[in-house]
Amino acid sequence: MNSKYTLLLEIIVGIMLLAGQFFCMVEGDVHYYDFVLKEKNFTRLCSTKSMLVVNGSFPGPVIRVHKGDTVFVNVHNQGYYGVTIHWHGVKQPRNPWSDGPEYITQCPIQPGTNFTYEVIFSEEEGTVWWHAHSDWTQASIHGAIVVLPSIGSAYLFPKPDGEEVVVLASWYKGNLKELVDESMQDGSDPPHTVHDDTINGGSQEIFVLAPETRHIVGRLIMAKPIFFE
Questions:
Q1: 44-56: buried (b, 16+ CB within 10 Å) or exposed (e) per residue?
Q2: 10 Å Cβ neighbour count for 57?
Q3: Which CATH number applies to 5-228?
Q4: Across the strands, what pairs with 116?
Q5: What are the pLDDT digits (tens) for 62-113?
Q6: Tell me: the pLDDT tens digits for 179-227?
Q7: Cα 83 vs. chain centroid, distance in angstroms?
């Protein structure tokens, strides 16, 4: 081989090796979560209904990471219909198959099966969220994602003494998916009546702060399905 091309090849290989070492150095931590989707009874406004929720809670669990981290979320669907999960506000560069829109980047996760998402927090920092991306199942399947600054980086403001995650959602007395399915069959409008608003799953939330508290980060998520019509 011509010595000139040999030298060029060696330079290219050297650059690739250095780049690989650099990315290894800046690579963040890897986290693993299990999301179990299952029906559970909830009582509110003097009536009880069954809802599909994650890990038995409404809203679902909070994911906590640092900028640059990667999260693997294994979603086990123990419900009665297919569901996907979308990572709202996460860019997912070169990773569209884990983005979650139903019938766009993947088929729904069928009942009795599971699917593992790879969520890459490449540039995000602050508060984003995850939610179901299948019909109106988002009403009960959602939660916050807290993305802290990368390790070794400082906040853009005084380091907070604490934080509060606040998830605002809507409460419907009936099964929202069934109501929407019925409206699709008879051609009527989908339900617009919200019977209650929720704060972290309840009708109200009390936040108690220590007297010495000076800086609090409030992480607010608007998870109302009607908001996304």
A1: beeeebebbbbee
A2: 12
A3: 2.60.40.420
A4: 74
A5: 999 999 999 999 999 999 999 999 999 999 888 989 999 999 999 999 999 9
A6: 777 777 776 666 667 888 899 988 777 777 777 777 888 899 998 865 4
A7: 14
Angstrom distance (rounded) from CA 71 to CA 31: 5
**Which of 72, 76, 86, 84 has its CA nearest to residue 118?**
72
pTM of the model: 0.80
Q: Which residues contact 14 (CB under 8 A, 6 or more apart)?
A: none
What would the two tokens of residue 62 be? Answer: 């909070």
Q: Cα–Cα distance between 165 and 179 in angstroms, integer?
A: 30
- Residue in this structure with the two tokens 């380091």, named with its chain if needed: 159
Distance CA 110, CA 143 (A): 21
User: What φ, ψ does residue 179 adopt, rounded to 5°?
Assistant: -65, -40
CA distance 36 to 76: 5
- Do 105 and 97 form a contact (C-beta atoms < 8 A)? yes
DSSP state at residue 134: S
